[in-house]
């Protein structure tokens, strides 16, 4: 059975300095894309608190587009 994911845009300033972003739903599993590129979890590119916050290791640059998929 394939995973079904919903797309969300997290809240937070994409200003080149901010690393923490809130997602609008409680999630147990996420996939994060920045400028269309899948990011690596577990502290490589970002961490996820298992509920509603994503923290990037390096802040997304100004103008970066990104989205979150959760199931």
Describe the structure.
With 71 residues, this protein is mainly beta. 0% of the residues lie in helices and 35% in strands. The chain is built from no helices and seven strands.
Give keywords.
71 residues, mainly beta, 4-stranded antiparallel sheet, 3-stranded antiparallel sheet, globular
What would the principal axes of the Cα set say about the shape? globular
Give me the number of helical elements: 0
Percent range for β-strand residues: 35-45%
Structural class by sheet pairing and helices:
mainly beta
Share of residues in helices: under 10%
- Average pLDDT reading: 87
Summarize the structure.
By secondary structure, the chain is mainly beta. It is built from no helices and seven strands. It starts with 5 loop residues before the first strand and ends with a strand.
Task: Describe the secondary-structure layout.
Elements: E1 6-8, E2 20-22, E3 30-34, E4 37-38, E5 46-48, E6 53-56, E7 66-70
Antiparallel strand pairs: 1-7, 2-6, 3-4, 3-7, 5-6
């Amino acid at each position: 059975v394939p995973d079904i994911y919903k797309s969300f845009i997290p809240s937070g300033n994409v200003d080149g300095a901010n690393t923490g972003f809130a997602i609008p739903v409680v999630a147990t599993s996420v996939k994060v894309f920045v400028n269309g590129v899948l990011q690596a979890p577990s502290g490589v590119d970002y961490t996820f608190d298992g509920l509603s916050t994503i923290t990037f290791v390096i802040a997304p640059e100004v103008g970066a587009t990104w989205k979150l998929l959760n199931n």
